[in-house]
């Protein structure tokens, strides 16, 4: 394979954040200031919104570009929006925008991508400072993604970033767009020179699933750069309200992961094994927490069921059977490890009392 075929010289930002859509001057400015205060340097906002079906909010268009420029003036962040055709690209470039992105629906259409590439190539200017972010197409098609990158690269753009936002599938998936990591790993393997940013917002579709996507990206696949939708008040967002995070929630989340990696991993080469083991432990701990959350969700459902059917919450027979089965399992699995038996006993007693409390709500 043709490794390093692309002569790309973008330093991928670790974070691009901003609302799904630009809705008002106030919304952009309030969100941007909060993001900048915590160190974000790249600000995104969609001003033309490609809606899958007609009738929704389709973006403010041109006036929102002026708001974006105000954001840049006030915060000195880089500003960017999505473009889906020649005309939008021309308008965005005329505003001297710092970055544009090509959305999943557009990447799916080689005519549209070529139209944007032509806009970049045919205008008399060169866009040495412009970054173009190319999202994966909606459908699971590696070649369409690479093809879009090639078209933009052939138009003379050297600052390119590939953005992974998952794929539309018809399987039952808890995610809005399934993160088929193999496709991303193939891109990384065949073209390690292309910087990669992960969009957990459009993968997850709901903010509750964003942490596990970030955790998977960082700790299972080693991707550390994120484009995240953030709105100062997601409850009033006109698009993608369920997946946006307030700036504060987003930074708390990102910092919680930084804390894991900074405090636990050492940086000396002699300690590579230790780092590997610690990373394994961190992954397992996060999985345990995810499982605990899943367990609590089910307890809540049980609580509701019991209430609706007038069933008492505490059922000693059920609890004794559950615990004794678990302890038998521990004994068989560990060949009677007394310490682990003791530990599981303590932990499950705690889990059980929390479950009982949860069911009371
Ligand atoms: C977006 O980032 O606002 C967007 C529309 O994303 P996607 O193209 O990934 O659906
Ligand atoms: Mn969105």
List the helices and strands and how they pair.
Blueprint: E1 15-18, H1 25-37, E2 42-44, H2 62-75, E3 78-82, H3 86-94, E4 99-102, H4 104-107, H5 110-122, E5 131-135, H6 142-154, E6 159-164, H7 181-190, E7 196-198, H8 200-204, H9 210-220, E8 226-229, H10 247-264, H11 272-308, H12 316-334, H13 338-360
Parallel strand pairs: 1-2, 1-8, 2-3, 3-4, 4-5, 5-6, 6-7
Helix pairs in contact: 1-2, 3-5, 5-6, 9-11, 11-13, 12-13
Report on the structure:
With 361 residues, the protein is of the alpha/beta class. The protein contains 13 helices and eight strands. Helix 3 links the parallel strand 3 and strand 4. The longest helix is centred in the last third of the chain and has 37 residues, at 272-308. The protein is elongated. The structure holds phosphoenolpyruvate and manganese (II) ion.
Rg to the nearest angstrom? Answer: 24 Å
What are the distinct ligands in this entry? phosphoenolpyruvate, manganese (II) ion
Strand order in the sheet with the most strands: 7-6-5-4-3-2-1-8
Give me the strand/helix succession: EHEHEHEHHEHEHEHHEHHHH
């Amino acid at each position: 394979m043709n490794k390093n075929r692309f002569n790309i010289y973008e330093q991928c930002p670790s974070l691009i954040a901003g609302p799904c859509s630009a809705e008002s001057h106030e919304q952009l400015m309030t969100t941007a200031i909060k993001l900048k205060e915590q160190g974000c340097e790249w600000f995104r906002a969609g001003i033309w919104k490609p809606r899958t079906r007609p009738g929704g909010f389709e973006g403010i268009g041109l006036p929102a570009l002026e708001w974006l420029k105000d954001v840049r003036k006030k915060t000195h962040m880089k500003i960017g929006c999505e473009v889906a055709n020649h005309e939008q690209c021309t308008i965005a470039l005329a505003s001297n925008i710092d970055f544009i992105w090509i959305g999943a629906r557009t990447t799916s259409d080689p005519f549209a991508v070529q139209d944007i590439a032509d806009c970049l190539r045919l205008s008399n200017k060169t866009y040495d400072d412009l970054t173009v972010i190319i999202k994966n197409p909606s459908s699971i098609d590696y070649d369409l993604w690479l093809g879009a990158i090639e078209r933009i690269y052939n138009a003379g753009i050297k600052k390119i970033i590939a953005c992974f936002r998952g794929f539309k599938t018809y399987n039952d998936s808890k995610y809005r767009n399934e993160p088929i990591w193999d496709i991303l790993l193939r891109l990384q393997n065949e073209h390690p020179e292309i910087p990669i940013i992960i969009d957990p917002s459009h993968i997850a579709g709901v903010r509750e699933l964003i942490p596990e996507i970030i955790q998977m990206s960082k700790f299972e696949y080693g991707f550390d750069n994120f484009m995240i939708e953030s709105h100062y008040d997601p409850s009033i967002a006109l698009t993608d309200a369920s997946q946006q995070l307030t700036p504060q929630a987003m930074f708390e989340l990102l910092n919680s992961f930084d804390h894991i990696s900074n405090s636990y991993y050492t940086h000396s080469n002699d300690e590579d094994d230790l780092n590997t083991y610690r990373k394994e432990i961190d992954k397992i701990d996060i999985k345990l927490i995810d499982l605990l959350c899943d367990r609590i969700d089910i307890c809540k459902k049980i609580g509701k069921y019991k209430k609706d059917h007038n069933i008492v919450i505490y059922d000693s027979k059920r609890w004794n059977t559950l615990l004794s089965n678990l302890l038998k399992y521990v004994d068989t699995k560990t060949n009677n490890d007394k310490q682990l038996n003791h530990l599981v006993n303590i932990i499950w007693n705690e889990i059980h009392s929390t479950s009982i409390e949860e069911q009371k709500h």
